[in-house]
Amino acid sequence: MSAAVSPPPDFSGNGKLAPHPGDAARVETFIPHATVQSHAANLTYLPNGDIACVWFGGTQEGVADISVQFSRLAKGSDTWTQPEKLSDDPTRSEQNPLLFPAPDGTLWLIWTAQISGNQDTAIVRCRKSGDNGHSWGPIETLFGPREDGGTFMRQPMVVLENGDWLLPIWVCLTTPGKKWVGDKDYSAVKISSDQGRTWTEVAVPESEGCVHMSVLDMKDGGLVAFYRSRWADNVYVSRSTDLGRTWTAPERTELPNNNSSVQAVRLANGHIGMVYNESSAADAKERRTSLYDDIEGDEGDDRAEPVPVEGVRSTFWGVPRAPMTLAISADGGRSWPYRRNLETGDGYCMTNNSRDKVNREFSYPTIMQSPDGALHIAYTYYRQAIKYVRVAESWTGAPA
Question: Among residues 358, 352, 279, which one has the least CA distance to residue 40?
């Protein structure tokens, strides 16, 4: 049973920035939204100085009315714009959008599209803009259906020192006769040497269960990647010294993970900032069957629902998605001595239901640094809204 909590905040504000009550060093707001559910934000600094945010919105993840939403904080403004819907496929749930300002000035919007709660049916689509997102070209398919399952992505594109583009993905493998639950998911990178016209896929070895690969170019000849764990134990890390052509097997870090998304960014001073939930399966009192166990089934889909088997490692759903924490590493992600919570609460996520306002998770964070050094963070709040926060690195206690 869910615990009684105080009433949630009023999410119906106008997106105007304001200091956090009692903490003038923190500026925040809820980004305007037009849907019952809002989830999975990604922030991007645009070449004209605007900050853009994309997320998915609709009634509930996995339902076909889920689509990509877009808002911007214009340079010099203190208010986020009203959202604009940028996708509308009545047959697929369109999720996990990200923005990529390409070196030639084109802004790419990239997102996934799946049938109902079946992530093993996901394809990846894109649109392009030549005016920083004020207008958009037609919807294209970037990565179509694959024989072994679905292609999923969540984290930003990286432009490598040789000009290659690297897009981290994970593969949602299909298990014959069973619905997707995530047990067999593994990570890979898509690499393009011709500005996105063709792509090569490189799998990360021994990465089963490690997804949401967040890749950082450390500017020292190496790449580092951080992963969400399907097993809800720890954040994992792996490294590459050859521009992403080979990777070490993911290893556990000291940071816990609850089978929810993390995101990291390399800061201008060489430090790494990460936003994540400071929780793991050890904090769980309940367990869900799957991520989509509370949406109606697909007509004609007679595949078996997944059932965890005691003693067999399987994807752990339902770990509380709280607190939301910002951590800083000064040694390439090997230790994380500076941590401070952005939000605290019970993080109840045994349902994705937003209509009945049952879910109380803080999740799917995104983080970026602007040229003035400020850290910009956004995350899901109760699956009803996207909260935006701006702080300095020193807010965590890290030395300037």
Answer: 352
Count of beta carbons in the 10 Å neighbourhood of residue 138: 7
The pLDDT tens digits of the residues spanning 233-272 come to 999 999 999 999 999 999 999 999 999 999 999 999 999 9
Pairing of strands 186-192, 200-203: antiparallel
Q: In this structure, which amino acid lies at residue 214?
A: S
Decide the pairing of beta strands 324-329 and 263-266: unpaired
Of 377, 371, 391, the C-alpha closest to 75 is 371
Provide the token pair at 230: 């399907």
- Give the model confidence (pLDDT) of 317-374 as tens digits: 999 999 999 999 999 999 999 999 999 999 999 999 999 999 999 999 999 999 999 9
Please spell the DSSP secondary structure of 332-398, one letter per residue. Answer: TTS---EEEEEE-S----S---TTTT----EEEEEEEE-TTS-EEEEEEETTTEEEEEEE-GGGGT-
CB distance 248 to 241 below 8 Å: no
**pTM above the 0.85 mark?**
yes
